[in-house]
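INTERNAL TRANSFER SHEET
From: sequence group
To: structure group
Subject: Adenine phosphoribosyltransferase

Please process the attached sequence and return the structure record in the designated field. Keep the field labels unchanged so the import script can parse them.
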Amino acid sequence: MSPGDLKALVRSVPDFPAPGVLFRDVTTLIAHPAGFAAAIDHLAARVRASGATLIAGMEARGFIFGAAAAARAGLGFVPVRKPGKLPVTTLGVDYDLEYGTDRLEIDPTAIRPGQSVAIVDDLIATGGTALAAAHLLREASAVVTHAFFVIDLPDLGGAQRLRDAGVTVDALMDFPGH
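Return from structure group:
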């Protein structure tokens, strides 16, 4: 299936989570066996071509796409977690959201110094979470030069924010608006 075919499997939900927002829901893509497999094939091929030796995915849908792409590409996977979820001493970063702050944590022993790590997530919107993940991975001595997404919402500027931070961004599809 082409990325265009996959785009047709993404459900659009109007007025969620707030009036005027058109939410792009990957649940329908994940539930479609051939579509999900094709999305993972596309992501894995792009990650392999980037030269990354490890994939990092952010909680929660980044776990779905990132871990599956890592398995398909023959690479390891490191979860970028919400606070308090890892049973070891973690490395963490606080970051700003539109209405508040959040925190991400990783097990720094899961990454070898200088290891090339690609970020994989379901969607890039404003880029706050992906930027925080890139910062955190770099703090753990990873080399982060690529991030891969199923969906880009280019009008929200997140992909450009990542590019400005030295990360090449690639998405299987994009949707105008928010």
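Handover comment: The first strand starts at residue 11 and ends at 14. Residues 3-174 form a domain with the Rossmann fold fold (CATH 3.40.50.2020).
Transfer complete.
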